[in-house]
Amino acid sequence: MNYDNEHVARWLVDAARGALSPEDERLLKGWMEESEERRAIYRRVMRENEIGKRYALWARLDEERALREVSRRVEGRRLWRMTRRWLPYAAAALAAACVTLWASSGGDGARAGEELARRYPELVLGNGERVVLAGDEASRRQLEDAGVTLQDSLLSYRATDGATRGGENSLVIPHGTTFRVALPDGTRVHLNAGSSLRYPVAFAAAGRRVALEGEGYFEVKADEGRPFVVETARQAVTVLGTVFNVRDYADEERTVTTLCSGSVAVALAGEEERYTLLPGEQLVSRAGEGVEVREVDATIATAWTGDYFYFHDNTLEEIFMELQRWFSAEVMFVNEARRDYTFSGKFSRYKELDTILDVMRKAGIRVEREGEVIRIE
Fold it and tell me: Quick check: is 292 in a domain?
């Protein structure tokens, strides 16, 4: 779909001001889904902590010059004409997207590279080479040399190259974004923020095995002769061909496996028993508390793949860990008893953090934000 630059800028401005209509939100989401670069532009605009840190710099930028740079980043074309009525808002909201890496790194090239890696997913090749998936020409050449392509925010492998390359790759996802990969066998994996996946570039004839840290949504390519195994630090999920979600973050006490279709067998680390799940069932394991298998609405567990936070009687501790992972905020429970309070709600991940916190306040939750720190009292 072709997008008009002026419309895109208006959507970004309205999003930054919290005034985006439902229809424009849908259109903006469609624009962002077409490339990781576009999502990066959005994140830079919306990331409030970056805006605060760089405000003094942006205030010195010429407004029209800043917007011309944003236009080039959005579609690589010259700036469209903009009405004076909303130009100041646009300059304030979009300047983040035109502050280059040298500005955030003080001109230090090494720091600029580190900053880039924190913003974009990173692919670690078998030889240790690291490729920042920023969608630029340099990274595309690195991927091409490795037999990998990146198109429409999907990383995929050329099957003809896999058998000869060998080794393992690791895909690392930073906070504030998600990413998709099509594995050599055709299995597709959607990785959540703060996650990583390690996998061979050519699966063995006897089976297919990957290692997950964090959360991933798997659409496994059917192959009866080669089971597909997802290993985490605390469990292993074995399937032949199915769709399921696995969540095992190192900083969370529980692991959660949700089956959408097909069948999976879950084996917990250190245990011989295997738990077989049916579609719509979820296995929850907590250290010292045993295992629970329950019927659930799988769309809640997988809402993140559609760019939503979906909380259903989650504890505040669980909720704020999720928000912290997405918004890169620091969370402090001033009142420890509040950790076990529960809350339900569904929010677009493209909403501002303050908008979500306002809804929670209206529900009676005492929460304050000071810069990058969220305090629950």
Answer: yes
Tokens of 89: 């808002």
| Residue 349 resides in a domain | yes
DSSP 60: T
Q: What angle do CA 109, 110, 111 make, to 5 degrees?
A: 90
pTM of the full structure: 0.72
Q: In 76-131, which ranges are continuous DSSP H helix?
A: 87-98, 101-105, 109-119
Asked whether the beta carbons of 127 and 167 are under 8 A apart, the reply is yes
Alpha helices in 109-246 (DSSP H): 109-119, 137-145, 159-165
- Cα 112 to Cα 45, 141, 188, 280, 372: the distances in Å are 18, 20, 31, 45, 21
Helix (H, G, I), strand (E, B) or coil at 201: coil
Residues 6+ apart with CB under 8 A from 228: 185, 187, 207, 208, 209, 210, 218, 220, 221, 238, 239, 240, 241
Domains: count for the chain = 3
Domain limits for position 369? 307-376
pLDDT tens-digit profile of 32-89?
Answer: 888 766 776 777 666 543 433 333 333 333 444 444 444 444 443 333 333 333 444 4
pLDDT, tens only, 290-314: 899 999 999 999 999 999 999 999 9
Please check whether residue 66 is in contact with residue 98, taking contact to mean a CB–CB distance below 8 angstroms.
yes
Q: For the chain, which residues score pLDDT lower than 70?
A: 4-6, 13, 16-19, 36-37, 40, 44-118, 159-166
Q: Smallest Cα–Cα separation from 338: which of 363, 308, 306?
A: 363
